[in-house]
Amino acid sequence: MTVSSKELQAFVCLSEYLHFARASEQLNMTPSALSRLIQRLEVSVDATLFIRDKRSVVLSEQGRVFLPYARDALNNLDEIKHVLQASKDEVSGNLSVFCSVTAAYSILTNLLPSIRERYPDINVLLRTGDASSALDRVMSGQDHMAITAKPQIVPSELLYQEITSTHLKLIISKRPCSIRQHWLSQSKEWRTLPWILAEGGIIREQFDEWAKEQDLDVDVYSHVSGHEAIVSMVSLGFGIGVVPDIVLNYSPQKDDIEVIDAGLALPQLSIGACVQYKSLRNRSINAVWELL
Which residues pair with 57 in a beta bridge? Predict the structure, then answer.
């Protein structure tokens, strides 16, 4: 069986996007070229890796089994390249970084220019999404590094380094709406209002622990993916929410939001970068880690 790294990269990318057009754009090729690569790979491994029709693409059972092996093969190839080039002065390679949209605005705007200036041959692949998936993406090998809130217990295979800190804020809409009217009519009693909270993740876990300590039983109106979406829904008057102040400061809806003084100290969060310990054998990842 002969499988090329290009075929493995195509497979891993398509397994993440599950969409030929978006995956091919990420890979800088046409959808038809991507389709041919996948077909060649399936012939080589004698397996159907994707179940696809005109409307959808999903990993087959064989594809799910093959995925971790494909990621390991690409990581091993990347590592050996760096070992072979260790005697050279330049540091080069790919670095996949995952973060929320807010982190891209607030943190990476300072970090990325430093990487570009110090290591121009490192190709940074920036991926944004819900921060609650950051740790899982690093631990599964989908991304080399993630910007995320620090978990209460850092998994043993991960290394975490703080970049900044942020406080959680309790927020309500400034717009005239039933939520605000209720809050004002009840002498600013916020405990009885409906809440909009993140579906999960480190910040939700810390909020839940805080709420338990305060003996606060919240009435959840909606669970949403991403703290940026919480600000949007709160600004429209759907409920009150809890978000890191770094998210609020960079939100386009921040002028429509009022921070509520709950009279209770909400948790302070550490925001930083995390990588797998074993990833630091890669010169490009280790070099960027040193910049932090």
Answer: 52
The strand pairing partners of 268, in sequence order, are 167
Q: SS3 of 82, please?
A: helix
Supply φ then ψ for residue 160, to 5 degrees: -120, 140
Q: What are the angstrom distances between the C-alpha of 279 and each of 69, 136, 159, 276?
A: 16, 15, 10, 5
Q: How far apart are CA 8 and CA 4, in angstroms?
A: 6
The beta-strand segments (E) located in 199-267 are: 219-224, 240-244, 257-260
The 10s digit of each residue's pLDDT in 110-167 is 888 888 888 888 888 888 888 888 888 898 888 999 999 898 888 888 999 999 998 8
The phi, psi pair for 199, rounded to 5°, reads -60, -35
Measured on CA atoms in the order 254, 249, 127, 199, is the torsion positive or negative?
A: negative
The least confident of 166-175, 234-243, 262-271 is 262-271
Calculate the CA 168 to chain-centre distance.
Answer: 19
State mean pLDDT over 52-72: 88
